[in-house]
Specification:
The complex is a heterodimer.
Chain A lengths: L1 E5 L13 E5 L3 H11 L18 E5 L2 E2 L15 E6 L8
Chain B lengths: L15 E3 L9 E7 L9 H14 L11 E5 L3 H13 L2 E7 L4 H9 L3 E5 L4 H15 L4 E2 L7 H17 L5 E5 L4 H13 L4 E6 L19 H5 L2 H4 L2 E4 L2 H10 L9 H15 L7 E7 L16 H8 L6
Parallel strand pairs in B: 2-10, 3-4, 3-6, 4-5, 7-8, 7-10, 8-9
Antiparallel strand pairs in B: 1-2
Classes of the chains: A alpha+beta, B alpha/beta.
Chain lengths: ~90, ~325
């Protein structure tokens, strides 16, 4: 499987400045490991040592937060778009 | 009509209206709770009153004592609601406001007499929270109610919004609301799940995208303490991002059923539509959403009148949640 991954501004320098990448992996965990293998500067930014998601990283498959779809075990298909975004205060929501 | 002793008595008991005409499925009803009917114009009236009442009960604020100042980070509505409550209760309010909120929000704060301190727009709400925390540390004489961490925020929704929804829509199967401080989702979510354990709770959030270009690393990230303290990760069933284009398109679509509501209400409606599309054919469902405010504060965005592409471009640069 090869999904499209969209990087947030703060992770782009670690990938040579690009906005999107095509990354292999059948699960979110595999995609993120593949990313850190290719771009070691992302290590520690995506996954914790135990393989769980970084606390302040939100990962979406087609705009759906993977934490509620099985986390790093959430499946990834070829046509999927994976978006990485930092967790931030959403603003006074109204 | 009922006669009220104070504007504060007008807070809550907001109407719910059926917007199922916009549902993609005949077997899925969608109802929205019109929080713009609150006196300062948003769902945050409930929170502001609850925060101030709790501080008075705890003795952090004393009615009638001169010279008491509150400080609060807000992208608008909490500040506006607090400004109204503080004006009535005799407290001074300073709001830390990101520079990239709509001008109407800024003017409403001024209308109720709040003082405004600007925080960098590029840091979004994170920057406002950070600056308010620093100022509160530097001024221990100021009262910092901190809506992102104060249990009185979700408590307002547990005590009022949740019971109102269940009373008006006892058949509710899904609750969809925006995620900012997480107060609405935690308060209503816990109330509904306690009384209707099968209810699904969906969070909708805007993409942080260009609003957080000021972040240097992921470690600058922020999760509202309320979300953590109230077990948000276990409470929510789904969390979806709704992009500016969908938010604006659904804000406009809501006028088809007569509703002139804010951009976050459009985003929440877009989330409800995603939710409705996942209900299996032949299964019925009733989705309740929150329309946090009305459209008045967003007229300057051109959301209803301008070319949608230019509005989307503008929305990417402002905080509308």
């Amino acid at each position: 499987m090869a999904a499209t991954v969209r990087l947030p501004t703060l992770l782009r320098p670690a990938a040579g400045g690009v906005t999107t990448l095509t990354v292999e992996g059948a699960t979110i965990g595999e995609v993120l490991v593949s990313l850190t293998t290719t771009y070691p500067a992302m290590r520690g930014q995506l996954l914790n040592d135990d393989g769980t998601l970084h606390r302040f990283l939100n990962v979406y498959v087609n705009d759906d937060d993977v934490r509620y779809l099985g986390g790093v075990d959430a499946p990834v298909d070829d046509a999927d778009e994976i978006t990485l975004l930092p967790a931030v205060a959403g603003g006074a929501f109204a | 009509m009922t006669r009220y002793a104070s504007v504060l008595d007008l807070i809550g008991s907001t109407p719910v209206v059926d917007v199922s005409a916009l549902s993609p499925k005949a077997n899925v009803a969608i109802l929205t709770k019109l929080e713009g009917r609150n006196p300062a114009g948003s769902v945050k009236d409930r929170v502001a009153l609850s925060l101030v009442d709790a501080a008075e009960r705890e003795g952090r604020l004393v009615r009638g004592r001169p010279g008491q100042t509150l400080i609060e980070p807000s992208s608008g509505n909490t500040g506006i609601a607090l400004a109204m409550v503080c004006r009535l209760r005799g407290y001074e309010l300073t709001v830390v406001l990101p520079t990239n909120v709509s001008p109407e929000r800024r003017q409403l704060l001024m209308a109720w007499g709040a003082r405004i301190i600007d925080s960098p727009g590029a840091e979004g709400s994170n920057g406002a929270v950070r600056l308010a925390r620093r100022l509160a540390d530097e001024h221990p004489e100021w009262v910092f109610l901190y809506q992102y961490a104060n249990p009185a925020n979700p408590a307002a929704h547990y005590a009022t919004t949740g019971p109102e929804i269940l009373a008006d829509v006892p058949e509710v199967t899904h609750f969809v609301a925006g995620l900012g401080t997480s107060g609405t989702l935690m308060g209503v979510g816990h109330y509904l799940k306690e009384h209707r354990p099968s209810v699904q709770v969906w969070a909708v959030e805007p993409p942080s995208g260009e609003l957080v270009d000021g972040l240097r690393s992921l470690d600058d990230g922020y999760i509202p303490p309320i979300f953590v303290d109230q077990g948000g990760a276990a409470l929510l069933d789904r969390k979806v991002v709704v992009r500016p284009r969908e938010s604006i398109e659904w804000t406009r679509r809501l006028t088809d059923v007569g509703l002139f509501v804010g951009l976050s209400a459009g985003a929440t409606m877009a989330g409800a539509i995603k939710c409705a599309k996942e209900i299996p054919d032949g299964q019925s469902a009733t989705i309740v959403t929150i329309a946090s405010d009305d459209g008045w504060k967003y007229l300057s965005t051109g959301a209803w009148s301008d070319d949608v592409d230019s509005v989307v471009e503008r929305a990417r640069r402002i905080i509308y949640f």
